[in-house]
Design brief:
The chain is an alpha/beta fold. It folds into four domains: 2-169, NAD(P)-binding Rossmann-like Domain (Rossmann fold), CATH 3.40.50.720; 176-270, Orthogonal Bundle (N-(1-d-carboxylethyl)-l-norvaline Dehydrogenase, domain 2), CATH 1.10.1040.10; 285-412, Rossmann fold (3-Layer(aba) Sandwich); 427-506, Orthogonal Bundle (N-(1-d-carboxylethyl)-l-norvaline Dehydrogenase, domain 2), CATH 1.10.1040. Helices cover 48% and strands 13% of the residues. The protein has helices spanning 2-11, 23-42, 48-56, 81-94, 110-115, 148-160, 176-192, 198-208, 215-222, 224-238, 247-254, 276-283, 298-310, 334-347, 363-370, 401-411, 427-444, 449-460, 466-473, 475-489, 498-506, and strands spanning 16-19, 58-61, 72-75, 100-103, 123-127, 137-142, 164-169, 290-294, 313-315, 326-329, 353-356, 376-380, 388-393, 415-420. Helix 13 links the parallel strand 8 and strand 9. Helix 10 crosses helix 11 (247-254) and helix 17 packs across helix 19 (466-473). The longest helix has 20 residues, at 23-42. The structure holds acetoacetyl-coenzyme A (CAA).
């Protein structure tokens, strides 16, 4: 991270002094700088001359005293308060009185660091995101002790680097990590509980959630030790058990499997990880399925449209369901869906897969009502215009039926992922709690809607921010999914926050 920040500053035309603990560490830092700028040269984004200039602006040293002339010092040492305090004591000693001292901490309190120095008014947080040269967000953290001028100078400098500063107060996780890590930890718990596989969760969140990386790929990029540190810090403040690091994460950290930096974390970087998509591609090659659709409404229309696009025959009359490979119930409400699917179950052939889309509780309830629960799966398209198909097997689903459903979905041009029969399947179960947290943050006045949205789009590469997402997906839908998640888990933090229910009652979007 230190090398990434040095690169950002040098690319911005600033002279940089990089301090490391010893010569070996300096060499590694130099290596990071050369590799990262070298990648930009290879991609034609930087000329060799420009690379030389950038590297020439970074002076590397092991002496704190060489920082004596700096206007701003950014600390990026490991996340231990004792270590940070030692570094800041040294900085306090060698730096000019008017120099601003910043910490790139992602988990410690900036105030705790500031009070250990002789210049708390000049201590700020500057929080960069991984990979620092790419991500546009920098959170600038002001404590109650920081003088406004120091914050303004740092925010200006960040803008000058082509990044977007979001200035917030000193709360654990600031904006982005506070919203991101509950979601990442929940994904780890989902894996640990056997709800879905690593690959299916990652695929669901990229293909269905539109994210640039799935949660396990991202945790491996961040570093699992950092993930645990950030979660511990957020938990200490929130006392929300969703922030209690999953035992699986701790086990990986104890085993030294920290992610990309050690070659193995959730993924093994020495081996190629293909898996799910290969299966999906080979499954996509069979004959086109015959699909029965029962129920009317936008979802039924969307399913008919995707069958048309895939060249699959669609049957929507009860009399013609006998030869269908898949019969999808796509009613607008669960009560009607239950009756329709039960009737369709009588008409469908013995080899047909029956799919429930309208479960308002668990799929198993609808499955039992059909009289042939062994043939029933849940089917959820988180975005009916998208390509992800989530397939839930219940405890009564016969072995092989979910495989057949996944094969049919693949032949319809969809990307299937599997999970157990739980509220929200994968995508909604992961995204709505995160969206609820964002609404809670907005309601608490910690950050405004623009800052929250900027944090997630510019810091984590989300296509849209959570406040915009809530309006796009519908606040009534958010409240309904959250109520289902809350009813299933009784987890207090999953109950929709008052700001959401109030806006639903008022019929007004958040923006
Ligand atoms: N260092 C430098 N540059 C890198 C890089 C790295 N490690 N990885 C990728 N890049 C550059 C590439 O060179 C490329 O640059 P150009 O467009 O100029 O050619 C660009 O990034 C895109 O790279 P790719 O095409 O190879 O890959 P991609 O399109 O899959 O994007 C990504 C990669 C930018 C990392 C993208 O997947 C993404 O946005 N992921 C989300 C990352 C995220 O959430 N970060 C925040 C984590 S939380 C955190 O860091 C805070 C904390 O406190 C823990």
């Amino acid at each position: 991270m230190g090398a990434g920040i040095a690169e950002v500053l040098a690319r911005g035309g600033l002279s940089v002094v990089g301090v490391e603990v010893n010569e070996d560490a300096l060499e590694r830092g130099r290596g990071h700088l050369e590799t990262s700028t070298g990648r930009a040269v290879k991609r034609g984004r930087l000329t060799e001359d420009a690379q030389r200039e950038i590297l020439g602006r970074v002076a590397l040293t092991t002496e704190f005293a060489d920082l004596g002339d700096c206007d701003l010092v950014i600390e990026a040492v490991p996340e231990r308060l004792d270590l940070k305090r030692t570094v800041f004591a040294e900085l306090d000693r060698v730096c000019r009185d008017d120099a601003v001292l910043a910490t790139n901490t992602s988990s410690l309190s900036v105030t705790d660091i500031a009070v250990g120095t002789g210049r708390p008014s000049k201590i700020v947080g500057v929080h960069f995101f991984n990979p620092a040269p790419v991500m546009k967000l920098v959170e600038v953290i002001a404590t109650v002790l920081t003088e406004p001028d120091a914050v303004a100078r740092v925010a200006e400098l960040v803008k000058g680097l082509g990044k977007t500063p979001v200035t917030v107060g000193d709360r654990a996780g600031f904006v982005a990590n506070r919203l991101l890590f509950g979601y990442l930890n929940q994904a780890a718990s989902m894996l640990e509980s056997g709800h879905a596989t690593r690959d299916d969760i990652d695929t669901a969140m990229t293909v269905g959630g539109g994210l640039p990386m799935g949660p396990f790929t991202l945790m491996d990029l961040i570093g699992l030790d950092t993930c645990v540190e950030v979660l511990d810090a957020i938990y200490a403040e929130s006392r929300d058990r969703r922030h209690a690091a999953s035992p699986l994460l701790r086990e990986l950290v104890t085993a030294g499997l920290l992610g990309r930096k050690t070659g193995r974390g959730f993924y093994d970087y020495d081996r190629s990880a293909a898996g799910a998509s290969e299966t999906a591609e080979s499954a996509a090659d069979g004959p086109k399925p015959v699909v029965g659709i029962v129920g009317v409404g936008p979802l039924a229309d969307a399913i008919a449209a995707l069958c048309d696009r895939a060249g699959a025959e669609v049957r929507d009359s009860a009399a013609r369901l006998a030869g269908c490979d898949l019969v999808v119930e796509a009613a607008e409400d669960a009560e009607a869906g239950r009756a329709l699917l039960s009737a369709a179950a009588q008409a469908a052939g013995p080899d047909a897969v029956l799919a429930v889309t309208s479960a308002d509780g668990q799929v198993i309830e609808q499955a039992m009502a059909t009289g042939r629960p062994a043939d029933v799966v849940g089917l959820h398209l988180p975005d009916p215009a998208g390509t992800l198909a989530e397939i839930a097997a219940t405890v009564a689903t016969a072995p092989g039926v979910a495989d057949r459903a996944a094969g049919i979905a693949a032949r319809l041009g969809l990307t299937p992922v599997r999970c157990r029969d739980r509220a929200g399947f994968i995508v909604d179960a992961l995204r709505f709690p995160y969206l609820n947290d964002a609404a809670a943050m907005l309601g608490a006045g910690y950050a405004d809607a623009d800052s929250i949205d900027a944090a997630m789009t510019l810091g984590c590469g989300y296509p849209t921010g959570p406040i915009a997402d809530l309006d796009r997906l519908g606040l009534d839908r958010a409240v309904a999914v959250l109520r289902a998640l809350h009813a299933e888990t009784r987890e207090p933090a999953l109950a929709p926050v008052p700001l959401l229910t109030e806006h639903v009652a008022a019929g007004r979007p958040l923006r």
